[in-house]
User: Which sequence fits this backbone?
DNA sequence: TGAACATATGAATAATCGTTCATATGAAGA
DNA sequence: TCTTCATATGAACGATTATTCATATGTTCA
């Protein structure tokens, strides 16, 4: 009589979330995985700023900032408001802060 | 009498966090910015697993998983426990779940 | 309408990164 | 100690990405 393989805890059947969610999560965190974009988000922590103001604060060229703002906007992390010739960007919701806070806690609490 | 430039809200002096923190945050989120690593972390949600078990669950080669586990371990997100010939990996703390949860909320709540 | 200004876009380049294949390490059992 | 098995490591390749430079878009004001 053939013996059943011993059942180990790690052999429990596992299911992963749907591929689309995994992809979306990866794409979202990829946006946070760049120092320039993190700097931009921190710059907007206390309120809106123009593209020029951001690029001066970060010491980077204006096109570099515009490219990154586009990425941040595509991820719904920032939004822009036009006033005359200039566009003021701001954090589009509180999720930015809570995601960064969650990461910060991992770095400090250990 | 020269007129002061109108003070706009965006002209407030801003300070960014120290460069090292920004770099550490970026590096941490970069680890989350890959579907394979997110899959691995989800696989370990319910408990430890061997490298082989993970690679079979994800349908990927063993070296691919080992490389990613190394990255996850370097970020203190997973840890390994040796038992005989096999090594069981597990989430090293609850931060993994809270970071992913924060990202998940951004994706769903809007 | 035309000049001036703020921002956006596109192409190109350099650097980073994930996977694969081949192989090395290290533990267990005969 | 030799073989086997699980995992780790290293080099190489392909793909993705951040920045730069040049230029386009679009708004304001004369």
Assistant:
């Amino acid at each position: 009589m053939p013996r059943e393989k011993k059942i180990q805890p790690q052999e429990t059947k596992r299911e992963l979330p749907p591929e689309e969610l995994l992809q979306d999560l990866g794409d979202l965190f990829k946006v946070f995985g760049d120092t320039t974009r993190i700097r931009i988000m921190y710059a907007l922590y206390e309120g809106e700023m123009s593209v020029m103001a951001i690029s001066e604060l970060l010491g980077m060229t204006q096109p570099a900032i515009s490219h990154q703002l586009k990425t941040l906007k595509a991820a719904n992390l920032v939004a822009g408001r036009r006033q005359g010739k200039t566009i003021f960007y701001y954090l589009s919701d509180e999720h930015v802060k809570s995601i960064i806070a969650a990461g910060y806690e991992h770095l400090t609490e250990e």
